[in-house]
Design goal:
Blueprint (H helix, E strand, L loop, with lengths): L14 E5 L2 E4 H21 L10 H21 L7 H16 L13 H23 L1 H7 L8 H36 L3 H51 L1
Antiparallel strand pairs: 1-2
Amino acid sequence: MEIVSLNQISPDQVIIWSWGFIKINATILYTWLVMAILVFISWFVTRNLSSDINVSRWQHFLEVVISVIRGEISEMTKKGADNYIPLIGTLFLFICTSNVLAIVPGYVAPTSSITTTASLALCVFIAVPYYGVSRNGLFHYLKEYFQPNFIFFPFHVMGEISRTLALTVRLFGNIMSHEKVIGILLAVTPLLFPVVMQALGLLIGVIQAYIFAILSMVYIASALSAEEEHHSHSEVKKEGSSV
């Protein structure tokens, strides 16, 4: 297996296996690895779920994680937090696991590839209108793009695209740059300092997963709140005109 070198900015460039035009690079391999780990942990933790007071440590840990995620979402949406836990929780756990595994020798975080971060950001890009249409209907969601008048339509579209690009570049830049810095330090300094940086990198990886998940929820919540606020104003105007 080939290891990513310092002159390779992305694990996309590391080809693990190829057959004709079919190629598996390091990004795909380690993405599958992270997915397999999450699936196994999910099966292992949930195989003996119990509603009793005395539960396993794994179940207790799972409940704590879900409670924290639900609490963060509730602070932004005020209601219906459980509707967003599958998306936001999956984003956080995938990114966090991808980043934390960086302590394993030879492993390269798939989040250091812009194709991975772009795919995650694209999921958020699709989720915003999905939740907006699900809650307020297609007409009210599309109508928001033309508020306060139709001239603002391209600006709303540019805002959606720029937020997606920001999510993509922020995560990619932080994880990729950290891996390169660690590689350089390992080449030019003794072992102790890179170990400290690696420990700091674990903290940064968790924080970046948290930031990505929170920003994703902020974008969804802001879209929903804007639509609901406009909808409530419309209802007030209708009631006023009827009076």
